[in-house]
Amino acid sequence: AKTGGRGRFCFFSAGMNDVVQQRLVLETALRQAMGTAQMQLHYQPQIDMASGRLHGVEALARWTDPRLGEIEPARFIPLAEDCGLIADLGRWALREACRQLAQWRSDGLTVPSVSVNLSPTSFHDRELARTIAQTLAQHALAPQDLTLELTESVLLDANPSTLQTIAEVRALGVRMSMDDFGTGYSSLSYLRRLPVDEIKLDRSFVADLESDGAARALSNAILEIGRSLKLTVVAEGVETAAQDSLLRAQGYAVAQGYLVARPMAGDALGGWLGRMAGR
Ligand code: C2E
Ligand code: CA
Ligand code: CA
Ligand code: CA
């Protein structure tokens, strides 16, 4: 029994080593990917439901490692947070999204704005507002061309510079959007204290719209909250025509999801807009 126990222990610790080693491999690969073509932004259209026109696009990071293949944001974003790379990734995404928006416009495309996801750590950066102002100026963009998507965890963050940084960024005229709205639990008080310009109904509500009366009631309540605070309300993860018409009936203004388009490379957006216009 003793030997068996020992054997199990050895097996267990070998397993642990594997996990640690895998993580180290991934972390090293991520460090090397930053600033290379392995790391890209893809863009998912957001549609104004009334006019059918493009409201904006959300930038989503994509990482393809030459050996490991495509790695999902759900894996590498938390990793970047843990190993101190997330602030670099955030600054890179801001610059890259602005560069791309300016490129689309110089190609003659009408893209009203780009949304960039930022982690709580990015708001610890005292220089964030200045970096954003410089980046916008460099590409001759207006502050309203940029939206920053943050999650409630940003607002629950105890770091004292967070609120100040958000205020500085908003003072520039950059829009703020509350992502995954309805999934945290301090949303209402925080929204009142710290105005954002937009809320995004989490896609878990949208997924259950057809089957669950409670999800419909909540999406309706969230829309009313948004309206009464004069916020743009975006529904995320719209996959079916039935979801789309339910959201329309409730009065949602903007939809984003696979029904309209999946995230795509920046240079594919022009073709997509052309096909949209031809429909
Ligand atoms: P998110 O910000 O909530 O982004 C929306 C996610 O839903 C994206 O997944 C998008 O591809 C996916 N999605 C869009 N429409 C649909 C749909 O109709 N159905 C379904 N099932 N999914 C849909 P993605 O790109 O895998 O990103 C996952 C998460 O990773 C993001 O969630 C965001 O929290 C994070 N993330 C992605 N890029 C960045 C980034 O550049 N910086 C930071 N900090 N986080 C990022
Ligand atoms: Ca987002
Ligand atoms: Ca979201
Ligand atoms: Ca999310």
Automatic annotation (TrEMBL):
Residue intervals of the EAL domain: 23-277
Superkingdom in the source lineage: Bacteria
The protein's name in its UniProt record: Diguanylate cyclase/phosphodiesterase with PAS/PAC sensor(S)
Residues of the full protein shown: 578 to 856 of 856
